[in-house]
Specification:
mainly beta, elongated, 2 domains
């Protein structure tokens, strides 16, 4: 399953696959193969052929701090942000209940006219 993860503030499409020989970690289309990996409380032990290595790991909430050869990496899900000035503008649309936008039909700057599809929104009781 592909997931979007943030490494030190930069978003990357990431996927982990189990294979007959170990597993693959695919980051932005680049594949890294490992024979084995185990996670103890504070370390990830990785074996790639005859080479064995480990990285120190620290978890704080939903952030994972990994020290690889002295270089620190913070792994987390990307933080979704919304521009308050747009949300609070007099021209903003507000929903009376929480919802989930499933599909977007246009992009910022597109001209739309009455009757054009803009989004598909899913919400309870709709």
């Amino acid at each position: 399953m592909k997931k979007l993860l943030s490494f030190n503030g930069t978003d990357h499409v990431t996927e982990v696959k189990n294979t007959a020989d170990g597993f693959e970690v695919i980051v932005d289309g680049e594949t890294f193969c490992f024979d084995s990996a185990t996670l103890s409380q504070e370390k990830i032990h990785i074996q790639e052929g005859k080479k064995k290595s480990f990285s120190t790991v620290y978890r704080e909430g939903k952030k994972l701090f990994v020290d690889i050869d002295g270089s620190g990496i913070v792994v987390q899900k990307p933080v979704k942000t919304f521009a308050k000035e747009v949300v609070q503008s007099k021209d903003a649309l507000e929903s009376p209940m929480p919802g989930k936008i499933i599909k977007v039909f246009c992009q910022v700057g597109d001209r739309v006219k009455d009757g054009d599809k803009i989004i598909v929104m899913e919400a309870m009781k709709m």
